[in-house]
Design a protein that fits this description.
2 helices; 6 strands; alpha+beta; 4-stranded antiparallel beta sheet; single chain; 112 residues
Amino acid sequence: MKMITAIIKPFKLDDVRTALSDIGVTGMTVTEVKGFGRQKGHTELYRGAEYKVDFLPKVKIEVAINDDLLDQCIDVITASANSDKVGDGKVFVSSLEEVIRIRTRETGSSAI
């Protein structure tokens, strides 16, 4: 089992959610986050004053999947979150040792 964590631009969330649903991903956790990468934020103009925005708004998606869906999920996320601009985001993959459904106490793949 794997945990995919993707940090993407907020306006791409619906595209990614729909694409993941289309390949059979049944659940995800979404969190609004702020951060910066190589672009180190940007400068904006507000009422004539220029100020630096260090942390940009992003969305973090977490998806627990079986190993057989890994490559397909990565392909779908990278394709649907891509805008060909700096700051499109990152995808992180980590191993899950155990998953337990609280209600039924199912474990492993059946709990996903």
